[in-house]
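To: structure desk
From: M.T.
Subject: fold request, one chain
Message: Could you run this one when you get a chance? Sequence is below, nothing fancy, just the single chain.
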Amino acid sequence: MSLRAKKKLATRKALIDASRRLIREKGYDGATLEDICQQANIHVTTFFSYFASKEELAFAHLHDAVRGFVEGVRERPEGTDVLTYWWDYLYHFGMRDRAHESVMLSRIDTPVLRQGYATINRMFEEALAAALTEEAGNEPGTDLYAELLASTIMNGVVAASQWHRRNYGQDAAFPDTHAFARMLAERFPPREAIEEVKKKVLKAAKLPLSPPRPASQEKAPAQTKG
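Reply: Done. Structure tokens follow.
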């Protein structure tokens, strides 16, 4: 990596660290772009070479976390299934960022934060579903079981977290919601049960078991020499 690239990465990290520190201290609205840039030792105009907005900066570490999962699950140790890797990844990430996320989530009624977290949750859900689909040897976008399981897990994490915070406060939320979501996933119907229901629904609707392939995916007929 060139010296220039290293400096850019260092500046990006400094901005992320400064924003996280100030958001913990002052909240999202109280942490101004000017204060963040001052702590990162850069000019505000330089900021826009790295991020489009304060919102993008505030969620940069979570976008990095999604990318980290996508890359890590592909390179996971041999013999480790996707869900085992997922729960370990989620737990270690959640515990590491627990204090910061508690501050952010305590202000989840802020529209910009609510939308930002909804986007991150959807990205995690899609990444988990894609990994489960690949693990099962199915084509992308065709595995109903993987998509239902990923949706159940992510929505379970979110719903349990919000319920826990409303009723018991913030401090113990993550370990409890992580355990709850994991137990919920362990009680999820097996793939065979989901497939059986899918077959019944498709049969009742008089639809083929396998969805028709888009025209762009159809193989072109072989040309004969003549």
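Reply (cont.): Residues 21 and 192 are 47 Å apart (CA to CA). Let me know if you need anything else for the meeting.
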